[in-house]
Amino acid sequence: MPVFTLISAVIAVVALSGYANHKLVRLPDSIGITVVALLLSVGTVTVGQFVPQVAAWGEQVVHGVDFPGLVFHGLLGLLLFAGSLHVDVVALRRARWIVLLLATVGVVISTAVIGWTFFYLTDLLGLPITLRESLLFGALISPTDPIAALGLLSRAQVPASLLTKITGEALFNDGTGVVLFVILLGISAAHMPDTGHIAALFARQVLGGTAFGALVGFGAVALLRTVDSPSVEILITLALATAGYDAALALAVSAPIATVVMGLAVGWHGRRYALAQPTRERLFQFWQLTDDLLNLLLFGLVGLQLTALAGTVREYLLPAALALPLVLAARFVSVGLPTTLLRRFARLEQRFERHFVKLMTWAGLRGALSVALALSLPPGPARALIVTATYLIAIFSILVQATTVGPLARRWLGTSG
Prior knowledge:
Layout: H1 3-25, H2 29-48, H3 52-64, H4 67-85, H5 89-94, H6 96-124, H7 131-141, H8 147-155, H9 160-186, H10 195-225, H11 230-250, H12 255-274, H13 277-304, H14 306-313, H15 317-344, H16 356-362, H17 368-375, H18 381-413
């Protein structure tokens, strides 16, 4: 199937899913599109049991989309740049310590808790998975995706400070989660490097990505100050989210973290010092629309991926289901420990909302990034298990956590909305 025809088919299916949701299901767009795409996948698999040609067509469409490549070498840079562009840097600076701890220490804690526990769990079930592969699962499932939850939480009148913490952590833990995943993926099963070597690699990726992102981001702000053309300024920011992302990859530093820093630099300093009012409005409207459209496309693709998993879902349903409470428990621990450290030992003016740990745990959704990381694993006995578990957790996040986080937030915080 030609690439353009494949892309057109996917966009058409996602668009029809959005229309069906708007007219019939009436859930928030990102959630509703996932639901409709899931129903289409289930329908395709069911009909395919009686009409093999339908199953073959569905698998051809889904397998024709290089989902990991689409995410990591196409959409991730654009989405992270768009997300960071709208962050209130002043509010983020106030929450910097908890965001920093959750996006680094919290990710490491979550990866370790999930990795070790999942390893022993699967061993009890007699499934073929190594400790390294279990830790890879922990690394890919630890990053959180705020997109589906933020709109719902905003309507629930959640404090802006909490939204900043959720957004800031999710933007940066995408980067640290990917870094941990890449490091673990590069480790040979026969040669495990010492902790110091892994820490050095982690620091190089994170600090190098931060430094590179700041250098390129502020360089772009300097360029924007000398131009008064909305089209050219949009092109400059597009170059940051695409060429800047690829350049970070080529330098072997964290491209996601670099892109987030670029977006923060343009969003804050560009807004204040480099962009005229009309240009600023057009630029931010462009990136808001881009963010919305790409997220809807990704959520639709996540739903359609069930077609490709039809052969393994039944076989690995039990361990995948058992992984779900494990991931939620690890999230609770990875948020609770850094929060406790700040509350008890840090002499900082750090304020936390009521039920902060519970809210951060339930609002910690897993989405397209986790699915893409799982699908990027090399072929092997453990891949089908990890992909199935990741997919089940992502769907639970989107369909259950995202739809209940607003009412739970209102109950816990005592707000109305």
